[in-house]
Amino acid sequence: MSSGTLKIEWAGQYMPVLAAIRKQFVKERPFEGMTIGMALHVEAKTANLVSTLAAGGAEVHITGCNPLSTQDDVAEALGKVKNVNCYAKRSCTVDEYYAAINDVLDAKPVITIDDGMDLIHYIHTKRRDLLKKVIGGCEETTTGIHRLKAMAAEGKLEFPVVAVNDTPMKHFFDNVHGTGESVLSSIMITTNTLIAGKYFVVAGYGYCGRGLARKAHGLGAKVIVTEIDPRRALEAHMDGFMVMTMEDAAVIGDIFVTTTGNCAVIAKKHFAKLKDGAILANAGHFNVEIDLEYLHKNAAKIIRRDGIETFVLGKKSVHVLAEGRLVNLATPKGMGHPIEVMDLSFALQALCTLHIAKNGKKMKGGVYDVPNEIDEQVANLKLASLGLSIDSLSKEQKKYSCSWDIGT
């Protein structure tokens, strides 16, 4: 048995929610005759989502959504699954990356599943011949949804897309616990440095930033949060973290992680103030949050180790992890989010794909929330897998909660 197959099987045993959905799909075959195009991080958890969709009757064509996040042995094993075609490979060039995107689109998918919106962007700009065929899509990550909403606001999104990221089951678990744990584990295994006692700077206090700040604090770090939103900054302050500008944080920070989804979060004006030996990492989807262009142009010397680029600027060194890409997946030993977290996220993806398959033709172009019943279904399946029970409202309580005329 190949190493990729072993990885896929290992992940599968910790994904009971997706397993329950797979049983439903095997029975109902809801994707019979449909082609699904995917651009996701190709690793073991993703492979279980792909095989679940294929078990439901789909022909799946998949590539990566990041040049450094594919696990080649998993991609090879996935390509041997019935009705699955995999084009992803690790460390591909930009040209190879988009050639693989085109390979997926050459299959003429009727449903797209994206992590970062590259398939949808390509269809709308380079492959408009496919627009009449696509009935809808799903988007996995915050950055992709930001781009999709901008597209929709300009009236340029021509088919419906479910914002899988923007739902409680994704925010509370994938963003908070998944990002928090996986980013820290990748930093520690790549650098072998201590977190405890360090000044740990988190750029952005959204769900990902909150989770990362809490986990770093739990390991003994002195956490600093930088923000542009006054409400989130105040929330971080009241959660017990130091709040300051990036310019001020640059002077004292030991480890920096960006979680904003925006560009130039750590840039020229910050590099001059960094300590010798500062470690920089990015947890956003694209490698634009750290100004790598400036570093490459101005470094006197660049030293490359596994997963680490050291830029020598004058008399000090600045260490950038994973080429500024998603640190939890793009480092040599990065494994991405914990399996149990992705079980929930990929269960959402599977059910949202089913929702698009059933309803996409009736929906106008735009960004749609995950239906509440899907979010609750995933939560209930997870509770059942854990053997946990919760209360339900009585008739009296339902009436009371919906009434307006019952006073004190």
How would you characterize the overall build of this protein?
This protein folds into two domains: 3-169 and 338-386, Adenosylhomocysteinase-like (Rossmann fold); 177-330, 3-Layer(aba) Sandwich (Rossmann fold). The longest helix has 24 residues, at 168-191. With 408 residues, it is of the alpha/beta class. The protein is 46% helix and 16% strand. The protein has 17 helices and 15 strands. The mean pLDDT is 96. Helix 1 (3-12) crosses helix 3, helix 2 runs parallel beside helix 3 and helix 8 packs across helix 15 (339-359).
Name its key features.
Rossmann fold, 16% strand, 46% helix, 2 domains, Ado_hCys_hydrolase_NAD-bd, seven-stranded parallel beta sheet, globular, alpha/beta
Offer a quick outline of the entry.
With 408 residues, the chain is α/β, with parallel strands linked by helices. It is built from 17 helices and 15 strands. The chain has helices at residues 3-12, 16-28, 44-55, 72-78, 94-106, 118-125, 142-153, 168-191, 207-218, 230-238, 246-252, 268-271, 292-298, 327-330, 339-359, 372-386, 395-402; strands spanning 35-39, 59-63, 84-86, 111-114, 136-139, 160-163, 199-203, 222-226, 242-243, 255-258, 278-282, 301-305, 308-313, 316-321, 366-368.
Tell me the strand order in the biggest sheet.
Answer: 9-8-7-10-11-14-13-12
Number of helices: 17
Query: Which CATH class of the largest domain applies here?
Result: Alpha Beta
Total number of distinct structural domains = 2
Family: Belongs to the adenosylhomocysteinase family.
Pfam family, one: AdoHcyase_NAD
Keywords: NAD, One-carbon metabolism
InterPro entries: Adenosylhomocyst_ase-like_sf, Adenosylhomocysteinase-like, Ado_hCys_hydrolase_NAD-bd, NAD(P)-bd_dom_sf, S-Ado-L-homoCys_hydrolase_CS
